[in-house]
Design the sequence.
């Protein structure tokens, strides 16, 4: 593509130097050529071309939305009326959505073009995009490796130039980790910044919707489009939405904290070296950098997996074969229909998390696990509140390693869960975070750096990230 961002694309179309229809056709052709990456569950070819024809006229008349002509892929956990909503699960493999998610509707209202729905770990549960009913997704940088999860398809769609920008969801790192593995920008907004209406729930007090992009302008304009209070989601917040695109050129020197707990044993040496190389450049550029403490960090993975599996156990109870979705063919009574439908409809990882969640919520174990994890969550949030009194941003690794081989961690769930060791804390605390691609390993694999800010300080993340383009 010969435009740098959505703004330039709109200008080129307006001047007649770029055909939006041809542009959409080129994306469709590329998706077909890169089909083996398995980034998409569904591609809406005819619809995208029809929208392109309509939106091109709007751009040329000067009456267009701020996402006009942007070709956007959305994760297949987001509702889009009249289109499949499978969550990459057998249990919903034939389900068609009867309404549209608020975030998706806002894209359509601003003249964005939805080109398709992307593959993901089933019900957004996974760190590798190997847990999909539609098959695994391949990393376009090295096709023997995972793209990260659960929003692997959305990350790959951007990294492989199958769309301009994409939407993913982040419950414990599912935007930031695949962004790191694929070498692109990925932003998890503050919990409540973007409406969750129309997002199929995994863990309702953790789930967030956010953008992937190869450049910060597109990230900023997509976040600005989807952010805001929504009467259909009581957890969305009526907070001022800054003009994120206006702050890209500012070179404000933020105070930056380095949490010492994130740079200990277990972090790949190349990732550590790359991050400290960037920190050295920041120091030379006049940034104030200091070491900080987040003492509750060691409890984040345990608290995260207790609380999210508990919420998943509750949220996924609705998929029972009775009302919609997959129903087992063989059963003798109602209970057996429930059991067989769920046994056959859910994949291994989803069943594992439902069982873990049911266990921690069960009588006799609730206080020992669930209640205690909620108290830990509060303490983790207080850690961040305290640190952000003295610094504007925190720099950490996004992942402990670069993208691992397909199948490498499939037999060891605990090792797989530890892939999220640096990202889950932001979801526990409800704060925003971004992955910034900063380097390549000796094997040519992308290395990402995570930057965290206090609640509703996305503009600081976006302004800081623009420095790295």
Sequence:
């Amino acid at each position: 593509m010969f435009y740098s961002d959505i703004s330039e694309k709109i200008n080129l179309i307006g001047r007649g130097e770029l055909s939006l229809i041809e542009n959409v056709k080129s994306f469709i052709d590329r998706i077909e050529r890169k089909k083996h990456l398995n980034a998409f569950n569904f591609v809406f070819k005819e619809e995208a071309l029809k929208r392109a024809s309509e939106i091109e006229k709007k751009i040329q008349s000067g009456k267009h939305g701020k996402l006009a002509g942007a070709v956007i892929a959305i994760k297949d956990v987001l509702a889009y009326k009249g289109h499949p909503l499978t969550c990459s699960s057998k249990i919903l493999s034939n389900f068609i959505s009867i309404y549209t998610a608020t975030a998706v509707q806002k894209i359509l209202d601003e003249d964005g073009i939805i080109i398709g729905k992307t593959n993901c770990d089933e019900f957004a549960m996974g760190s590798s995009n190997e847990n999909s009913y539609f098959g695994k997704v391949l990393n376009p940088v090295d096709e023997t490796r995972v793209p990260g999860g659960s929003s692997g398809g959305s990350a790959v769609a951007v990294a492989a130039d199958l769309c301009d920008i994409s939407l993913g969801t982040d419950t414990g790192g599912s935007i930031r980790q695949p962004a790191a593995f694929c070498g692109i920008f990925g932003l998890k907004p503050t919990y409540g910044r973007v409406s969750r209406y129309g997002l199929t729930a995994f863990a309702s007090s953790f789930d967030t919707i956010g953008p992937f992009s190869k450049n910060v302008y597109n990230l900023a304009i997509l976040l600005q489009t989807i952010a805001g209070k929504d009467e259909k989601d009581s957890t969305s917040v009526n907070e001022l939405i800054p003009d994120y695109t206006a702050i890209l050129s500012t070179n404000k020197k933020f105070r930056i904290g380095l949490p010492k707990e994130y740079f200990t044993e277990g972090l790949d040496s190349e990732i550590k070296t790359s991050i400290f190389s960037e920190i050295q450049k920041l120091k030379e550029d006049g940034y104030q950098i200091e070491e900080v403490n987040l003492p509750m960090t060691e409890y984040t993975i345990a608290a995260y997996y207790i609380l999210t599996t508990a919420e998943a156990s509750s949220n996924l109870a609705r998929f029972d074969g009775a009302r919609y979705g997959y129903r087992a063919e063989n059963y003798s009574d109602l209970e057996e229909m429930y059991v067989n439908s769920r046994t056959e409809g859910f994949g291994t990882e989803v069943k594992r998390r439902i069982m873990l969640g049911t266990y921690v919520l069960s009588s006799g174990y609730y206080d020992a696990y669930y209640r205690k994890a909620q108290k830990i969550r509060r303490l983790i949030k207080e850690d961040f509140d305290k640190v952000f009194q003295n610094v504007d941003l925190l720099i950490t690794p996004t992942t402990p390693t670069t993208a691992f081989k397909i199948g490498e961690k499939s037999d060891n769930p605990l090792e797989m869960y530890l892939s999220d060791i640096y990202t889950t804390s932001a979801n526990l605390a409800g704060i925003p975070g971004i992955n910034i691609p900063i380097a390549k390993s000796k094997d040519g694999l992308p290395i990402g750096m995570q930057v965290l800010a206090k609640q509703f300080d996305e503009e600081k993340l976006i302004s800081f990230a623009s420095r790295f383009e």
Summary: The first strand starts at residue 40 and ends at 43. The chain has 15 helices and eleven strands. The longest helix spans residues 366-387. The chain has two domains: 1-294+383-469, 302-367.
